[in-house]
Amino acid sequence: MLTPHQAAITATAGPQNWAALIADDHVGTSPEAALPLISTAFRQQCNTAEGAFTALAGLAGAALILSYSIADTSRHNALEVFRGCRNAANNLECAGTPVDYKSAINTVNKILHSRDTLASAMLLVDIIRIANHITES
């Protein structure tokens, strides 16, 4: 468990600050590239500042890749995609059922390889929700 001081510092690496990393543009990215970042983030124990930063870095990288990938098939640019998904994530209740690592990664892998824009957007919302949970814990 993070101390209050560590939690406050860790929150600066959270999704509320990720928009600064994304240009209001379109860049072709392969959604499959997000898989190793998500996998690493999901394996992290976030009970230390280092673990939380590592998980958030992976989730931020995956969010960038997915934002640009979704924008590539959309009339919206990557920044608009990210902001829309972040708003959706912030409006959802954080009531999820824990899923084991293997099931989660298998599902993520299927979504990323499907190249389904809606499924990718839903995954982006979940990535932001997970990152919010890390920064709020």
- As a whole number of angstroms, the C-alpha radius of gyration is 14 Å
Judged by helices, strands and strand pairing, the structural class is: mainly alpha
Q: Report the span from N to C terminus.
A: 8 Å
User: Which series of helices and strands comes N to C?
Assistant: HHHHHH
Specify the oligomeric state: single chain
Total number of beta strands: 0
Sheet having the most strands: none
Range of helix content: 55-70%
Provide a count of the helices: 6
Low-confidence stretches: none
Strand content: under 5%
> What value does the average pLDDT take?
91
Using the alpha-carbon principal axes, give the shape. Answer: globular
TL;DR of this structure?
The protein is mostly helical and 137 residues long.
Can you put this structure into words, describing what you see?
The mean pLDDT is 91. It is built from six helices and no strands. Helices cover 65% and strands 0% of the residues. It is an all-alpha fold and 137 residues long. The N and C termini lie close together (8 Å).
Features:
single chain, globular, 65% helix, 0% strand, 137 residues, 6 helices, mainly alpha
